[in-house]
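Hello again,

I reread your note about wanting to compare the complex against the isolated chains. To keep things tidy I'm splitting this into two emails, and this first one only covers the full assembly. Below are the input lines as submitted, including protein chains and any nucleic acid or small-molecule components. They are followed by the predicted structure of everything together. The single-chain runs will come separately.
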Amino acid sequence: MATYQPTPEDRFTFGLWTIANPGRDPFGDAVRNSLTPVEIVHLLAEAGAYGVNFHDADLVPIDATLAEQAQIVKEFKQALNTTGLVVPMATTNLFHAPIFRDGAFTSNDPRVRAYALQKTMRSMDLGADLGAKVYVFWGGREGTDTDSGKSALDAGKWFREALNFLCEYSIDQGYSYKFALEAKPNEPRGDLYLPTTGAMLGFIETLDHPEMVGVNPEFAHEMMAGLNFMHAVAQAWDAGKLFHIDLNDQNIGRFDQDFRFGSHNVKQAFFVVKFLEDVGYNGSRHFDAHAYRTADLDDIKAFARGCMRTYLILKEKAQQFQQDQEIQSLLTQIKADDGSMHQYFGAYSREKATALKAQSFDRDGIAAKGQPYERLDQLVIELLLGARE
Amino acid sequence: MATYQPTPEDRFTFGLWTIANPGRDPFGDAVRNSLTPVEIVHLLAEAGAYGVNFHDADLVPIDATLAEQAQIVKEFKQALNTTGLVVPMATTNLFHAPIFRDGAFTSNDPRVRAYALQKTMRSMDLGADLGAKVYVFWGGREGTDTDSGKSALDAGKWFREALNFLCEYSIDQGYSYKFALEAKPNEPRGDLYLPTTGAMLGFIETLDHPEMVGVNPEFAHEMMAGLNFMHAVAQAWDAGKLFHIDLNDQNIGRFDQDFRFGSHNVKQAFFVVKFLEDVGYNGSRHFDAHAYRTADLDDIKAFARGCMRTYLILKEKAQQFQQDQEIQSLLTQIKADDGSMHQYFGAYSREKATALKAQSFDRDGIAAKGQPYERLDQLVIELLLGARE
Amino acid sequence: MATYQPTPEDRFTFGLWTIANPGRDPFGDAVRNSLTPVEIVHLLAEAGAYGVNFHDADLVPIDATLAEQAQIVKEFKQALNTTGLVVPMATTNLFHAPIFRDGAFTSNDPRVRAYALQKTMRSMDLGADLGAKVYVFWGGREGTDTDSGKSALDAGKWFREALNFLCEYSIDQGYSYKFALEAKPNEPRGDLYLPTTGAMLGFIETLDHPEMVGVNPEFAHEMMAGLNFMHAVAQAWDAGKLFHIDLNDQNIGRFDQDFRFGSHNVKQAFFVVKFLEDVGYNGSRHFDAHAYRTADLDDIKAFARGCMRTYLILKEKAQQFQQDQEIQSLLTQIKADDGSMHQYFGAYSREKATALKAQSFDRDGIAAKGQPYERLDQLVIELLLGARE
Amino acid sequence: MATYQPTPEDRFTFGLWTIANPGRDPFGDAVRNSLTPVEIVHLLAEAGAYGVNFHDADLVPIDATLAEQAQIVKEFKQALNTTGLVVPMATTNLFHAPIFRDGAFTSNDPRVRAYALQKTMRSMDLGADLGAKVYVFWGGREGTDTDSGKSALDAGKWFREALNFLCEYSIDQGYSYKFALEAKPNEPRGDLYLPTTGAMLGFIETLDHPEMVGVNPEFAHEMMAGLNFMHAVAQAWDAGKLFHIDLNDQNIGRFDQDFRFGSHNVKQAFFVVKFLEDVGYNGSRHFDAHAYRTADLDDIKAFARGCMRTYLILKEKAQQFQQDQEIQSLLTQIKADDGSMHQYFGAYSREKATALKAQSFDRDGIAAKGQPYERLDQLVIELLLGARE
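Full-complex prediction:
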C-alpha cells in the first residue's frame, strides 16, 4: 500500500490563514490561539508541504510599524530558509478591516477605493520580496446586500480601473506577477460581483492587460452556487487562464465551509484531481481550507495532512482509471468515430456547408444507440471505493 | 392610474413555444392542446406584443417535407403581415429529438455533432427568411450526468468549432446575424457546460469572431444557481454583449420553472427592468416563460398580458425612483465624492503610485462612516409596494 | 395614505441582539459599538415596538457576578417600566461561548450537556423574572460538521432528555412557560439536527410534555433550505403549535442573512402576513433580523422601523385582498363546490367506500377544466405593487 | 475480494417505474421502449433483487377493463411465482393523469378529491391482492405554483381526511397495511405541502390512526432541499416510523434526478447504509432511481446491479468501521464519559435541579478540549476510498 507522503514535487501549498484559523464564526468567539507565521511554516514543512501563501495582514498586522514589519519578514524568511518552503502566491486582505465594510475597489467611497489600491501595492511589494509569482485577488466585500444603492456598472468600471492600474504597477516594478482573480457568489455580502470563475474569465477580456490576468478557481466557491467545479477549471485551462487553484470542500447552498479537501464531495474531488493530472497542470495545489472549529492542534495537523493525502490517493486513482482495461474499453466504445463525419468538421468552406446540408442522417438509428455511461460510472464508483481488483 | 397597455415600442416578444406549452412535465402528460403558430401570432398581437420568436421545430415539424415547410412558412408570414408582428430572433431546437440524448454540438457521437450543424444551418436559413437578426444558442443537452464519460475539454473544443463554423456560414450567406449564447446551469442534464452568463462571456473570447457573438441571459437560469440576474446583465452590457434577454421568473435551486415575469422575485425583477431602462437597452424584451400547468386558454392569455403589464408597472417605478427626491437625496449622500482622491485614479503613472503609497488615510474615521442603505432600501420597498404617495 | 405607525396592539417585538448587532461576520471585525440593553429598550419604544426579547447573555454577561446581574436587571426593568415595553419571550445563548463548540444539549461531552442544562435553568429564572411567557430553544450548534463522530440517535435522545427535564423544571418552578423550538438547517454547523419546523413538530410528539412545546418558525431559516415559509407556519398553526414566530428575510441557499423583514422576498412575506392576520394569530410578531453591516445608528433605527412598516403595509394589502371583488370572484370560481361529492367525504363507512368505488368520474372532462391561477396571481402581484385602483 | 452479489436476504427492491423509465423529460421525448411488467420482474430477479413495487398505473393502465386487469395481474403473479420475487409495497399514481393537474387529495376541485380516494382504494385492493404490506403515499402534485389560490389549511385538512378515511378502509378490508408518507420539497409544483420527512412526522400525529402511519424518506427528495438524509432517517427511526426507505442519489438544489444509488454523494450514502445496518433496519431497501436518459437496455441492467453492488460495498465498509481499531479508539476518546455528570441526567427532581444549578463548571477548561473529528473523518474518507490496509 502506498504511503501517500507528500513531497515538494507535489506542489502542495497552504495559506497562513488556513492553519491560523482561530475558529471564530458568526455565532461564536475564537476557540484556539493562532500559531505564529513562523510556527505555521514549520508545521507545514513537517507535514510535507511545498509552499506557504499569505494575505499581507496574515504576516504583518495592519498597524505594524516599518521596523516591526522588517523584523517579522526577517524571521519569516529565516523559517522559509530553514525549512525549504517557498511562497508561490500572495494576496491582499481587502475585507477584514472595518474600512472595507462596503467593499474595497468597488466601495462607493473614493477614499476606500484609493486606500485599497495603496494597500494592494504595498502588499504586492511584500509578496514580491518573498518571491511570490502569482498574485491573487479575492474581493471579499465587492458586492451588495441591496442593489438599491450601488451601481453594478460603476462597480465594474472601478474594479477594472484598479486592476489596470495594478497591472501597470507590477510591470513598472518589474515584479513579473501573474494576477489570478478568484470568484465567489456571495458571503459576506448578499451577492458578490463577478460571482463565478466564468464571470471572471469574461471580465478579464475587458482589461488592458488580459495576458497578465487569469483565474484562481476555488472548489468551495463554485460549489456554493451548485456549479460543477471541474467544468469551471476546464474552461479556465482551455482559455490558458488557470494560474492558480484553491482546493477545499463544501456542501452546496451553504455558508462558506472551507472543509478539508476531499472530505465531502468525494466524486467531484476525484474529477478535479484527474483533470489537473491529465492535463499536466504544474502550478500550486493550494489548500484554502481550515480545520473544524472543534479541532485542537493535533487535529489541525491531521487536517493539513489529510488534504494532501486525499489528493495523492485520488491522483493514484486517476492513474488507475487510465490503466483500467474495462474502463478504457468502455471509453473507446463511447468515443467511437469512424471518420465519416470528419469531412464536415474544421474550418468552414461553402462546399463543406453545402455538402453537410445535403447529408442524410438516420435520425432514429443514431438516437437508438445509447451510451454505456451507467456501466462506466459504476466502474468509477467502484474504483473510488477501492472495490476494483 | 396608468393602463399599462403594451405597444410595439415596448419591444415585447414571446417564443412560439411559450404560448404553445402543453403543460407536459416529468410527472405528467400534456393537459391542453397547443395553439398553432398562426393562432399564437394572433393571440400575441391581440395582447400587444411586438414580436414572436421560434425554434425551427416550433414552426416546422422536424419531419415536415419541403412542401409542407413552404406552406407553413407562407401561412405564418401571412399572419405576421396581418398583425404587424415581427420575428426578431430565431433559434434551433437541439434538445428535444432523441438523437440529442447525449448533447448536440458536444455529443460524443460525431454523427450527432454533424447533424446538429446541419440542423442549425437549416434553421438559420428559416430564421433569416423570416427576418430574424439575432440567433440564439441554447445548448439544452450540452453537458453531462456523470463526468466519467465525456471530456470537458473536448466538449469545449467541439462547441467552439461549431460556433466558428456557423459564424462563417452566417457571413457567407450574408445573414448579418448576431449570435446570442444562453447559459443554464443544469437540467435536463446534471450539469450543463458554460453554466452561467459569465461563463459564456469568457467563452466568447476564445472564438474566431467574438465580435459577432454575445449573450442571451435568462432570468430563470441565473436564479437556478442562486445568482443575481441584474449583475449578470450588467456584466454583459458592460462588455457590449447584451444581444438579447430572456425574462421570466424562478425560485432558486429548483427545476426550470419559467414563471410569468415578475411573479415570484418582485424586487429582483424591478432591478432588472430598472437596469434595462436606465442604460437604454433597445433590444427585445423576450418572455421565455409559460403559463402554469393548471392554465386554460384564458389563463394563458392572462399569463402573456401579465408578463407585459408587470414589466410596464416596474418601468414606471424605475422612473419614480429617478424622480423621488428622498431617494435621490440619499443616493447623493451615498455617492459623495469631494474629488480629493481623483489624483490617484485613472491611468497609471509612477508618480501617481508613489504619491498614493505615501498618502495617509484615517482608516478608523473612514470606517466609522456608514451608508444609509437600510433607509434607501426601505424606500425602494415602499416604492415597489405603492406606498410612497 | 396610511401612516403605518406601529402601536403595541401590533405586538411587534425585537431581540436585544438584533439592535445590538455589531456587524461582525466571518470575514470581518465589529464595525460599530453595541447599544446597551437600556438604550435598546428606549430605541425600540420610540420606534413603536411592543416588546423586547433576549438571550441570557444579551442582558447579563456570562461572567457577571450576582450583584452585577441584579444591577443590570434593575436598570432594565426601570427602562421597561418607563417605556411600557414588555418581555414576551426569553431564550438561552447555547452557541457563543467556546464551551459549546461541539453543541450544547447534544455535545459528546457530558459536562457540556450538564452545563447547558444549568445555563438554561438560570436563564429561565431570568426570563420568568422579567415576565416572559414563551421560552425559545434554538440549538445553534446542535449538529455536525461530519457525521463520523456523533450519533444522530444519541443526539436526539440527549436533546429529548434535556427538554423533558426543563419542562419539569418550568412546571416545578411555576413558570407557566410555553416552549417554542426553532429549527435551522445549517450554519454554524454543516448540518443541524431537526433542521426544519416540520422536523420539530415531529420531534415534539416524542416528548413527555408535548402540550407544553410548540415551535418558533423563522422565515430566514426555512428559506435557507428553499422551503415555503408560509406552508411551514400553516402546518404549525394547524397543529396548534404556533407559539412564536421569527420574521426576517433571506435569500435561498445562502449564509444566515437575517435581512429586514419584507426586504427581499416581497411576495412570500405577503403570504405570511396574510396567513397570520387571516387566522387571527395573536402572539408576538418577532423580528429576528439585523441591519446591514454598512449601517450606522440612524440606519439601525430605519431598519427597525422598516420591519414594522412593511408588515403594516402588507397587512393592509391582506385586507385589500379580502375586499377586492375581482380577486374574490376568482376565488369563488376556484373553490366551486356543488356539494355532489360531500357524500363521500367525512368519516369512513363501508357504505360510503362502496358507493365511492362505484362512482363514475368523467376523468377527461374534469381534467379539461383549468384554474384561473395566472389571472388571480397577476392580480395579487398588481395588488402588491399598488397597481390596483 | 467480495463479489457483492445481492441475495433476497438483502431485501433490495425496485419499482416497476424505475426500470420502465422511458427517458422522457421536460425537454425531450421518450428515447426507449419500456419493458413490460413481466419482463421487468425477470430482469430484476436475474439481477438479484428481492422484490418489486408498483403504482397502480405501472401495472394496470388507467383505462384497462376489469378483464384486462385480471389478465395482467395473472401474468404478473406468474412471473413473481416463477422468479420468487415478492411485492412488499404498493402505491397510487396520483400525479400523471391530467385530472390531477391541481393535486389529488388537495385539489380545489371536490370531484378530483373524491376520484383520488376512489383510485387509491382500488389501488390498495390491487396491492393487497399482490401481497403488499406497506402502502406508500407520495403526493406528486399536492402543492402550489402560487399561494394565491389555495389555502394551506384547507389542503392540510383535506389530506388528513383522506388519510383517515383510507386508514379505516384498510382496517375495514383487513389489509393490515402500514402507510408510509413520502415527502418532497418541490417539483412538479413550485412548492409541495409537507415538504420534508420531518414535516410528515409532525403531520402523522394529527391523524386518527397515527400508529398505522409512518414515513418513506427518499434520499433524493431530502437532498433537493440540501438536508442531511441520514439525520432525517434517524429521526424517523427514533420515532418508530421508518416503515420504508427510497434509496437513490441527487445533487442538491436541482430537478429530481433519481440517480443510481451511491453514484453522486458517496459519503452521505455511506452514512445512510451504516445507519440502516447499525440499527438493524429490516425493511426493504427500495431503489427509486432510474438509468440516465443515455442508457440502453444493457445500461439499465448495469444501473440496477450498480445500486445493489454499491449498497453492499458500503455495507462492508460499515462493518470495517466497526472493526477498525484506530477509528474505534478515536470514538472512545470522543465519547469519553467519567460518569461524574450522570447524577444530573435522567428524570427530573427538584433536588437534581438544585444541585445542578449549584455545580461549578470550568468553562474555559472544558472549552479548551477539542475533538479529533478531523482525524476521524480523514480515516473515514480513507476507509471509503479503500486506502486503509
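For quick reference: The CA atoms of residues 183 and 197 of chain D lie 5 Å apart.

B.
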